Amino acid sequence: MAGLIDYLNWRGDLSMVAFPFNEIDNAILSLATYIDMSVFKHRLSGDSYVGMQEAMTWFKNNGYTSTCLSDIDEGFVSALSHSDRFRHIKLRHYIDIINEECQFSALCYELEDGSIYLAYRGTDDSIVGWEENFRMVFDITESQKMAREYLEDIISRDMNKLYRIGGHSKGGNLALYSSAHCMDSVQDRIIEIYCNDGPGLCPDVLGKDVLHKIRYRLHVIIPEFTLIGMSFLNGIKPTIIKSNAVGVFQHDIQNWELVGTKFLRSTSVNPRARQINNIIAQWVDNKDMESRREFVNAVFKVLRKNGATRLKDLGGIDKIVKIITDIQTSSELDTGQVVKEIADSAIGELRVEFTRKLAKTSKLRKKTKYKDG
After folding, report:
1. C-alpha 57 chain-centroid distance
2. pLDDT tens string 10-33
3. Is this model's pTM higher than 0.90 or not?
4. C-beta atoms surrounding 266 within 10 Å
5. What residue spans in the chain does CATH classification 3.40.50 cover?
6. What backbone torsions phi and psi does residue 23 show, to the nearest 5 degrees?
7. Which of 12, 138, 142, 200 is an S-S bond match for 102, by CB 3.0 to 4.6 Å?
């Protein structure tokens, strides 16, 4: 089944002026936001810009770093560099901040028709970025505050343009939060908001009617197996789509399947994912704000006890299993069933993924040995 690279190769010659922006374009730009643009940071400040073709050609020739949990395929970067549909896009207003309180990054794409797609980056592999995701159940995070400030600043610079706001994972949540909480005059310039498998807005923190003014501009897209995309939907009906990955790895936007200009639709969420989401929802409903805060603080205390600042610091599968076990047995945590269900699911799929990568590496070695011999 086709994916994002296929779309770039098959429909890359169709301009956005002749064939309007669609949900696949949204996914492609959300994914591109995970690429570290710091090499162009001086040119992406103020009113200057870098063309998509120039940026992607540079990355193709010189290499690049992606902050996505799964490596961004080189074919994706190459296809973006020569696609007529995307190569004329202007990249503007890049920001990338990580400190002890938050992980935040955003980028604006100026399309051929003059409209702007403002994209927030999702969570990278930083521990602080993941902690922010959990903190959303009891507080407004620093990234959410920055997202609102960034959106209001960008749109206020040119109130004559039309804007789409989007992102993947936490980036989708930031798109929801900033669009729902910005000034009315700014909100009026927003025509669409895309949340690609990102958590919604916790009603206990932000109120039940927080999405009321923007609900008819929302596109909430989730794969069949989602662990965060069903959280706090506040009555919004998501578009459920198919992925070629297994379990939690369906979160990776590169695995989503498409036909033409749309993702391949599914009729329902995976039963196992729905079960886990129900357990999480019940746990949240049964805990007051302080209990949620204590739980999150205790979880990340365990994660940091060995000095880890990034997920890669946690080590291989055996070490990850031990950490999850430590979290389950921590005397500071009243985890109940929620950690057990998530852990059992995650551990099983992590083992599958590690086995798959090992097999791929082994196959590559055999191929290399055959060529050399």
Report:
1. 24
2. 888 888 988 999 999 999 999 999
3. no
4. 16
5. 4-268
6. -65, -25
7. 142
